[in-house]
Structure formats: C-alpha cells, structure tokens
Design a protein that fits this description.
This protein is mainly alpha-helical. The protein has one domain: Rossmann fold, CATH 3.40.50. About 50% of the residues lie in helices and about 5% in strands. It has 10 helices and 4 strands. Strand 3 and strand 4 form a beta hairpin. Helix 3 crosses helix 5. The radius of gyration is 18 Å and the shape is globular.
Length: about 200
Amino acid sequence: MFTTLLRAYADRRHKAIMGEKTPAHVGWADTLLGWYPGGRIVHMVRDPRAVYVSEVRRRIEHPVSVPYRWLVHVPPLMRVFVLHEVAWAGAVRHHRDLSRRHPDAYRMVRFEDLVRDPETTIAGLCAFLGVPMEPALLRQEVVSKGSRVGEQGFDAGAAERWRSTIGRGSERWLRVLLGGRLATLGYHDGSPRSA
C-alpha cells in the first residue's frame, strides 16, 4: 500500500524516483532499506540553534496544539519547552549508526550547505541518488512560512539569520545542552564545516 501511494504520487508529478520525506522516518531507515533494496536515505539536518529560533517563532505565531496553546501565554516556559525539543540527540545517533551500517545508501546533508552552495550540494545528491542533475532543481520557490515565502531561489541568509534573534541565554544554553553534538555534525563555533 505504501509503495502504491508513493508510486502514484511520483507518477502524477512526473518524477523519475519516488520518495517520502517524513523526518521521523530516519528512525526506520533499516526497515525502509529492507523494503526497498537499493533505496537511499537522505538525512537533512540544520543547526539546532536555527531550528530553535524557527520553532519558537512558529509556535508563538501558530499555537495550534497542546501544549503550545497553553505555553504561548507564558513565553519563558515556551522557550524552555522548545529548547528541550531541539536537543538533537537523535540526529547525531542516526547519523553515526546509518553512516556506519549503510555507507552506500545513506547521506547526511546540512541545510546550511544546501542554501549556501545549492549547485554543488544538489549535484552531489543527484549523483548519490542516480538521477541526472537538472537546472530546474536550482529554481526553487520558497514555500516555508519564513521571511521569504513566495520568493525564488535558495536563501543563503537563512543559514545565519538565527544569530540575530536567538538571544545570548538561549544560545549559551543550547551550546551547553548539545555539547559535542554540534561538532559531530560539523558545527564548530557556530559555523558548519565538513563533518
């Protein structure tokens, strides 16, 4: 049933390969690779400090579920709750495990690399996935609810924008909470480098 849904969606959009992008599915990578021999896992990560800033803004602007509908009335508790949500331990564990167990089927990509150098990053992903690099892949419309929604192209500024809004206390707390996990995925002194 899962394959039928994926294939129908890919065919409807005239895509060469089918795929699925639920972030939590990285935890089921072994099962998925068992179901789809020859499949590929692309694990997109982003600096957790940027994720924190984005999540706080999103949860305050659109507190659609519990506990956010309650926490929006107590901003310090909202920030603490979101801090713990973005602890990022799973991302590092999955990266270590999957790159060791499935080196030919797993690729981690940092969001910052994608927005700063989309051509190189996308060309590498196309080679990994076994599909041709097409110029249309570089012509993207911004669809997030961020500051550039509806604009065209990749927003290199998105890699650093969090720095101006995070607040020193939150940034320090995340640095302590995350410890060496930042460095494990290539975030040294707040800037991504090769992992």
